[in-house]
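Page 42, continued from yesterday. The earlier attempt failed because a stray header line got pasted into the input along with the sequence. Redoing it now with the clean sequence only.
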Amino acid sequence: MEYLTHTLANGLRVALCKTDAKVAYIGVAVGSGSRDEGPEHPGLAHFVEHTIFKGTWKRKSSAISSRMESVGGELNAYTSKEDTVLYTSAPAGYADRALELLSDIIINSIFPDPEVSMEHEVVVEEIKSYLDSPSENVYDEYEERIFSGNALAHNILGSPESVREITGYECRQFLDRNYTPDNMVVYISAPDDPARLVRRVDRYFGSMTFTLKRPARVMPEKVARFDEVIDNNGFQAHTVYGATTFSRYDERRFALYLLNNYLGGPCMSSRLNSELREKRGLVYTVDSFVSNFSDTGLLSIYLGCDKSNVAKCLRIVRRELDRLAQCRLNPRLLDKIKTQYCGQLLVSSDNRENMAMAMGKSMLYHGCVHDASYTAERIRAVTADQLLDVAQMLAPERCSRLTLL
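This time it went through. Structure tokens are written below.
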């Protein structure tokens, strides 16, 4: 793929990819999330993502929701701990419509009181749905402990009490502090002429003059290792086991990605799936994940099993981690897992919407586009020694465990 990047006079960055597709994917990636909302407003970043669609000086909420849907497209958004993405998809030829709409809701949203009050209850229902899903809730509980005392600790949704206290004025303040040209990237994957698209982005977003005013992020302090069980009288045990690692800018992340994929990635042949499910039938689901932030990171292993099998499963997890930390992978196995991971990158890059979002977030965090081929090149350069060093960061004395029963 060929990429074009551009920076407007006001500091807004643009990442474009010209394709031969009949669908255009256009969005805005914002470098602020729940970590940036302040301790007095848990859930504010996510609530802004919900209510930003509820009315502008030019449009009512119904006109916003139908603007892309009327041509068969979509308008949506999501919030994470460090970023928010507003995104659209539509048949090719509607790039102007998408760009104008996105600029309108960012620049002109007014957060009407009736809409804000109604959305309080919508988000509260979302919170309840997560609380009813222990396999989701266990991650929030785990991160509250491993990032204790830091803004990364509290969950993205907030609590019913904190959400109901959020006002439209506070939403607009958060928007003005965080949705600023120097903290945003407009990304476009479409068959249109890139130079023309840059001009259209400048037309709709070039008037923005806000500057980033969010509080400085504070790096989490190391917390004492914990091993905790919470009994909620459920039917199954849900366990997260892991340790903090390093930031999205650390070159060791590529070795960590490879280790994670081999250990508990999406393949049935991953070490943990093979040992816990295929050989012993102890779990239905076992996965491992890497979460990268601007100044830290986390490798988390999740397993869901019968309550009586938790201890047995954890012994096997620790045994697999010990093996990786004590012995270098032989060259043949190392080449095999690299080939597998690079193949997965190639397959995932065929999803054009995911590729477009990844392009935008890469521009947001790195100032350039790191695509699948960039990552694959660095995965292939990982050595057995680098993999061993990363594995040693996951020694049992560094790992913490939380189980919800």
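Notes: Residues 99 and 201 are 7 Å apart (CA to CA).
Reminder to self: strip header lines before submitting.
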